[in-house]
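#dry-run=false #mode=assembly
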Amino acid sequence: MKFRVDRDAFAEAVAWTARALPARPAVPVLAGMRLEIPDPGSGRLRLSSFDYEVSARAAVDVDVDQPGAILVSGRLLAEIARNLPPHPVEVASDASRVLVTCGSARFTLLTLPLEDYPRLPDMPKVTGSIGGDAFGTAVRQVAPAASRDDTLPMLTGIHVAFSGDSLTLAATDRYRIAVRDLWWRPAQADLTASALVPARTLAETARALVPGSNVDIALSTIGSGGASRGEGMIGFETGGRRTTTRLIDSEFIKYESRFPTEFDARAEISTAPLTEAVKRVALVADRNTPLRLSFTQGEVVLEAGSGDDAQALEALETKYEGDDMRVAFSPSYLLDGIGGVESETAYLNFTAPTKPVVISGVPSEEGGRPDFRYLVMPLRVS
Amino acid sequence: MSRRQLERGAALRGVVGPDGIRPLAAAAAADADCHILHIDMDAFFASVEQLRHPETRGRPVIVGGTGARGVVSSANYLARGFGVHSAMPMVRALRLCPDAVVFPPDGAAYRRASEAVMDILRSVTPEVEKLSTDEAFLDVSGAQRRLGSPVRIAELIRHRVRQEQQLTCSVGVAATKFVAKLASTHCKPDGLLLVPTEHVTAFLHPLPVGALWGVGEKAEQSLTRLGLRTVGDVAGVSPETLRHELGHALGGRLAELAWGRDDRQVATATPDKSVGAEETFPRDVDDVEVIHREILRLSEKVARRLRASGQVGRTVVVKLRRADFTTITRSRTLGEHTDVAREINAVARELYAAAGLERVRLRLVGVRVEGIADAATAPRQPTLDEPETGWREAERVMDQVARRFGAGAILPAALVNRDDADV
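#status=ok
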């Protein structure tokens, strides 16, 4: 195989593909990145990586001298590509080596045995599509609420529910539940399906989206009657780049009933000043110390720290309806909730100081359901 | 003191009488008001090393820096027989005792052994004041109804430290901290000395002034200048004179101490760094079910003690000692503080399973909770699906039942003695 390629386009495609490389490969070949030019006429180089869970595929335009396929250490190639000087890149391989030349820099890499490399799963049939920006925002809103504790796999996923032209993303770690409703364009109007996608992969995918792009979503369980969940897989394709990931084979909790339908008190606070104030006051609190909020008519006082430690206090103007309320949160849980609110004003809805609180944006229509809802359990402080 | 002990050749168990120390008779010890115990581990670092290196038994052992400027930090009594003592340059120590086995200090090992001993002390009474890794005061006034007289408690502690840790300690029993500490020093090693209140002055007055708490080199010189060489001499001088000569604070204190008066309380104020319990089996055990039951029992005990002292902890530590005395510890830090036995037990069991010692013969298991915080101020993050009342509340009710009807009145079913219950 031999080709020439633009330095930046190559570096970018290699970096994107390297995201799916396993940190600790189960078998040595999985540390490899596959480079392939199947057909000299296409002028396309295809890059791929796979760790049995997640696969990533990208393509880049190249000048083909000779088609072929090779497998090289993905991490090393990514490091090299990132640091190449600004000159066209030439890549040439013989039986056991790959030569990367760029300006006066030359690298020789050993190839890995291509015949041992597993076949990447096929991309399932496209189920629908959505704007990349809206999708990226939705993932960022719910991902923080997913658990990072691998002993409970069900909680490490983001639940994606498809119902006609609405899409609902939800995640919970048992301390809070984040839910986001949004619109999308399904391939079939009567689609009903759901998938539990590893939150880490989904967040990675959303982070790597190009602004203004479009994302095709493909779910493997659709089409086979939707009945069997089996070896489920979901794929995301944007701008010729595809990521697939295995689904978490587990039921998600029925979260909707956890959200209270009636509230005894509500605060309406400007989102940006609240976020800043919480960040400031939280400076004196660590992960396990509470950030205390006291709501009275027209004002909320934020406090953290006590007695022998550093303390912080800040008051904010707020619209508040209900009896005076004192409630405490883990600072990061509170920030994850407020951070998900897109509207200028954030709602904090209360029932009792020890009961879950719902943080949300302002619904687009009066009395409607807000797009983003975040249910969080307050800290119990005696 | 050590020289005397070596000459006598047997551990001292004595009581101070009007005319010197007499052997302690089991009955009729006048210890009713002597509720302060001073526990001092014998040649602590050296003893821990000897335990880890059984081949050094019967040989002089020194722990200390082995470099050119190394200093002795601990020496066993055989080495002390050659004149070796702590703070002595290692070079000199080895000249005095060339056959000694020298170990560099292993702080972590001594801390672990120290915590195990402190756990024994805390199981006697929560009123424990730890002075250093190898020394502590106990106030046993509250434990007497449960465990007997102070001398009996001292014997019990010595027995348990020997049985469970293979270490010896010396215990001084008296009505004040000052006298209790002098008493333990007096009966080292492996001794027990009771100083009944009526004989305190007989015990104190022949001692040199340096024995008084707070008298260092300088104060000793001042006292010698005044012609005061023994504690009795100091006792004979008026407090005004002492204050005048030594300053208000020290003079006043020495006037009191010389008569055995010391109103310092056993101060437990420094919060526990950990709460733990361990069990040495009468016979080594490899039955997983028996180990599981023991882990449950210890978890219950630790949780009960946490709740009783209003504390919660975040890190669960399991200690497993094999039949050959090799010991491993495994720990896990939880997301939340806890004082619930059910939660501690679940983690401890997992740690035991993960240690890979199932079906290995064990001599000892221990459960400990670290990362202690005050339950009243430690915030708790409940889960969304947590019921209003759960195990936490159930275990609090168990505490109440136990307070009213005794410790064995309510137990997890797994810990009930089946022979009794199934009839």
